Amino acid sequence: MIYHAPVNELRFALQVHGRLPEILALPSAAGLDQDTVDAVLEEAGKFAEQELAPTNRTGDLNGARLVDGKVLTHPDLAQAFAAYRDAGWLGLRAPADYGGQGLPAVVSAACEEMWCSANLAFSLLPMLTLGAIEAILSHASDEQKQTYLPNMSQGLWSGTMNLTEPQAGTDLAQVASKAVPKDNGAYAVSGQKIFITWGDQELTENVIHLVLARLPDAPAGVKGISLFIVPKYLVNADGSLGARNAAHAVGLEHKLGIHASPTCVMQFDEAEGYLIGEAGKGLMYMFTMMNHARLGVGVEGHAVAERAYQAALAYARERVQSRDIGGHSKTPVTIIHHPDVRRMLLVQKATLAAQRALYMQAAAAIDTAHGHPNADEAARAEAVLNFLIPIVKSWCTDNGTVLTNLAMQVYGGMGYVEETGAAQYVRDVRITPIYEGANGIQALDLIGRKTAADGGAVARALLADGQSVAAKLATVDAELGAQLQQALALAEQSVADILAQMTSNPELAAAASNAYLNQMGCTLGAVALARAHLAAQDALADAANAPLGEDFYQTQQHVTQVYFTQVLPQIHTHAALVHSGSPALLAVPLESF
Amino acid sequence: MIYHAPVNELRFALQVHGRLPEILALPSAAGLDQDTVDAVLEEAGKFAEQELAPTNRTGDLNGARLVDGKVLTHPDLAQAFAAYRDAGWLGLRAPADYGGQGLPAVVSAACEEMWCSANLAFSLLPMLTLGAIEAILSHASDEQKQTYLPNMSQGLWSGTMNLTEPQAGTDLAQVASKAVPKDNGAYAVSGQKIFITWGDQELTENVIHLVLARLPDAPAGVKGISLFIVPKYLVNADGSLGARNAAHAVGLEHKLGIHASPTCVMQFDEAEGYLIGEAGKGLMYMFTMMNHARLGVGVEGHAVAERAYQAALAYARERVQSRDIGGHSKTPVTIIHHPDVRRMLLVQKATLAAQRALYMQAAAAIDTAHGHPNADEAARAEAVLNFLIPIVKSWCTDNGTVLTNLAMQVYGGMGYVEETGAAQYVRDVRITPIYEGANGIQALDLIGRKTAADGGAVARALLADGQSVAAKLATVDAELGAQLQQALALAEQSVADILAQMTSNPELAAAASNAYLNQMGCTLGAVALARAHLAAQDALADAANAPLGEDFYQTQQHVTQVYFTQVLPQIHTHAALVHSGSPALLAVPLESF
Questions:
Q1: Helices H / strands E in chain A, number of each
Q2: DSSP string, A192-212
Q3: Measured between CB atoms, which of A332, A339, A554 is closest to B510?
Q4: Residue A206: phi, psi to the nearest 5?
Q5: Tens digits of per-residue pLDDT, B179-218?
Q6: What distance in Å separates the CA atoms of residue B398 and residue B433, rounded to the nearest whole number?
Q7: Rounded to 5, what percent of chain B is helix, strand, coil?
Q8: B157-162 and B206-214: which strand pairing?
Q9: Does A577 contact B564 at a Cβ distance shorter than 8 Å?
């Protein structure tokens, strides 16, 4: 269960897909250079390997417990969190104005991959804190920012997101928690929230809950929902901690995985809360941080699969069983020699490379959208980001389940035994297609707001961009180039299909949305690996331009070949489903299921 | 977590795919008629629903434990087993000559689906006992049969299979356990066996271990392996139980799922054992029961997914969330209205129908192979069976993971919470692609012994048979007919591809074997559902010939439509992988993974 931080892979992905040189040239990255980024990756890798990775199984075996109203976690986690905080990792992308380091999203995404690989359940605590920081930074008053952000950016206080209620999951319009104005300008917040990750814990001095609730006179539906800060401990005027607020964890869920992270039922009983921004805009405020959160979940799905792959690879290199099929050996060989084991491993490796490329592209779009001085460039990046986010979130997390199961299969019977750790990856990763907007919701987002809303403009621009990559690829490898051109043509047809269905009958498009999303993920992944292939070609042609060594770049070209022949052919299935799969689904009477 | 035995689906599958009228006409089925079969299914369904299904979660929560050398399971399991035994269910397909009922494989397979849906972990105890019965019946001496089979057929004694050792999993040639002749004609069996399902327990009076071991002078490799009966308690000449034998469970695995069933490390310390048949033929003897066991595991993968589907469907009919996309409703609707939820449910339903069809075909082939008076017919059935077995085993179990995960996804966040039961199905089913020959081994079996060995004759015969079904289908529905013809043409091409690769470079075929197996499963599933479509068409045309009611047959036709548009398109991906996917895999140097 050792974890090796894939620092070289991350450096390569940062250059090729994260457009690091461009990002470092943005005014918002002033003072940061390539050497510093390299140093950050090295140190983060060490921290993930040495401090976090060893806590993964301990945390799984010793899940969070609710004892006498307190949420208790294993001491190893507290120790790891203290080390993480003290090393400044939490503040990596927290705002510099409030004690964070304000690093670009591409750099922090690379680090987040490593945190999530090392210990997914742990990583959710800083991830949610950063989400809360982002919401407060974007919408709260200066006084509120001063009160909460410095301590949160340093990891002294954590942040939580209280959205879901039993009757309001995907459908947040049903939120029923109430906030009644008090004499002191604050609000008395009451209600029950469920599925609150790290909703309470003893690792930080305070927990800052962001809570969706309704004012007494609020209209029904989403426009009546406001956002409140509800601290676990009230904060005195001098910044010291005051009274315990009536915000309590009253239950923990028994989950398939991520045992180390408490998933709380939170009870608010006239807890003191403070309105963020304007009343009625709570959901909109939450959505401003959704892109980063959804990108983060995509990284989670990817990261757990990366670690599972490493474990399966190590096992395949060590386990001796049966002679090789080619008959080269007279004695049993390590199972990595067996072609089907190679298939399982390389499908993982190739898919991981494509996933890393896509999340890096999305992170670069965040940096460009937020930091590019040219408004048109920033807007273009924002549009690309909006298109990529549901894809990164869903494709990397559905793949997460597929890939961790492939990793388990490499182990054979040993994979089913919990001690080897393969099972934990399968269990842990399974939350990622569910939370932060179930993948079905992501697919609806992709066909609606992200495709139909602009008449397919961004989708087509990305595919056109892909065509220029394919043209270059064809000059290096005619067959790969032709494959990519065919894939792009199929994707263009699917965009047209979805646009037509959205006009003629949106239910058809909705029934095809999952296939459309997977086709886009698979195709854009191929475009990205085509870019990687070309970059590797350049590096191999010029040793001075090949800092990671010849073998590394040759491996990237192998990875592209494997992806094109083993993963990309999935598009034929997806395209068929988008084109004509839905009518049969919709024709089945609901009582005939 | 209620389970509804799908008795009507099973009756339909028995008629159409299990060829029940033909099977009942075999001499081996003398005395059995349609009404009796219907009654058996009804009673088995009730037993599964009422006695077994409620023990599923109890067994999961209260896993087997090893205490003071005894393997303890939850009392509910003992009670359920006693009821199961007393009702005669264990003996359903046990030999009539030794106290069983000797029912056809098609009927017992239908019942086994229900046992496995109701409680997979429980079902393994009778399943393994039946495997041991089969091995003893086929290869042991008359005296051995008389000593063990009557009590085993009644479920008073259980049977176990002791094959795997730490260094000998897939590669049984590495078995190292020893058997040294004793003065009394018996053998002293010593060694450690792992992954022994229900290796010990307190539910039966005795446990009859079948153990692979080597005689002192045995050659290395598979030809040195012999099979021994090693009872937990020695059996006295009068049939009473004697001394405790030195065969002990010394450890239990901590597994991802099937917690109720103990997976034992078995230690044999000069335990008294009795040679079955001839020395050196142990592995061959084991293989004679392998077909039935592998069919059984395919049924397991299918059955757990069936129950997961039922649970997800019930949730989707009950959970209210968001308005419908078509805008027909002003208020939130049950989530079954949402097209992507319908997709998830119907892909499960359609795949389940195809799986049930394939395992029924295989079971009918067992009955025909064993019972047909015409030797040619029997041999033909045997060949079909041999081809189908790796497909049923792998396709139904890999699908098992996919389908149970789809079921969990329907639940959203509630699916990740153990209390809803969706997680248990995901955990339990995951053993099925691993044990009884990992699915990679099944795929090698399919390309080698089952395809290349006869030059593709059986494969092509099955596909030719499919073409005649497609021709009939085309007269009823031209589009479905054309789709099936296209699928069969692709499958024929893949047979040719595999045969060519087996000749040119078997490693290419091995790397493509998984895709080939999945393509065959997917395509033969379509042929089967085409048959179902035609049978439903006949029933709908003649009410006198429609015992299950008009709605039932209309639903079967919907299921075929969904399968053809949502599941069958996977063949395009599989065919591409078979045709040209392997070279890139094999080109990657092992050190570059």
A1: 21, 11
A2: EEEEEET-S-SSSSEEEEEEE
A3: A339
A4: -145, 155
A5: 999 999 999 999 999 999 999 999 999 999 999 999 999 9
A6: 6
A7: 65, 15, 25
A8: parallel
A9: no
Q: For the segment A168-222, what is each residue's pLDDT rounded down to a tens digit? A: 999 999 999 999 999 999 999 999 999 999 999 999 999 999 999 999 999 999 9
Helix B7-16 with B550-562: angle, nearest 10 deg: 70
For residue A401, give the nearest of B257, B320, B405 by CB distance. B405
Tokens describing residue B89: 């269910």
Asked if the model's pLDDT at residue A288 lies above 90, the reply is no
Q: Considering the entire predicted model, what is its pTM?
A: 0.98
Give A17's contacts (C-beta < 8 A, 6+ positions apart).
A356, A357, A358, A360, A361, A364, A528, A531, A532
Q: What is the pLDDT of residue A197?
A: 98
Which residues touch B304 (CB under 8 Å, ≥6 apart)? B116, B117, B120, B400, B404, B425, B428, B429, B432
At A46-87, the pLDDT tens digits run: 999 999 999 999 999 999 999 999 999 999 999 999 999 999
Residues 6+ apart with CB under 8 A from B65: B71, B72, B252
Residue contacts between A and B (CB atoms, under 8 Å): 258
Q: How far is the alpha carbon of B342 from chain A, nearest alpha carbon, in Å?
A: 7
Cβ atoms of B308 and A157 within 8 Å: the answer is no
Q: Which among A124, A115, A152, A151 is positioned nearest to A64, based on CA atoms? A: A124
- Residue type at A339 in one-letter notation: P
* Residues of B annotated as catalytic (active site), given as ranges: 436
Q: What pLDDT score does B482 carry?
A: 98
Name the β-bridge partners of B320: B334
CB A136, CB A148: distance < 8 Å: yes
Sign of CA dihedral B163, B168, B169, B173: negative
In this predicted structure, the answer to whether residue B586 has a pLDDT above a threshold of 90 is yes
| CA max distance for chain B | 85
A173 contacts on B by Cβ (under 8 Å):
322
- Is A562's CB within 8 Å of B577's CB? no
A272 is an active site residue: no
What local confidence, expressed as pLDDT, does residue A327 receive? Answer: 79
Q: What is the ipTM of this complex?
A: 0.98
CA dist., res. B319 & res. B314, Å (int): 9
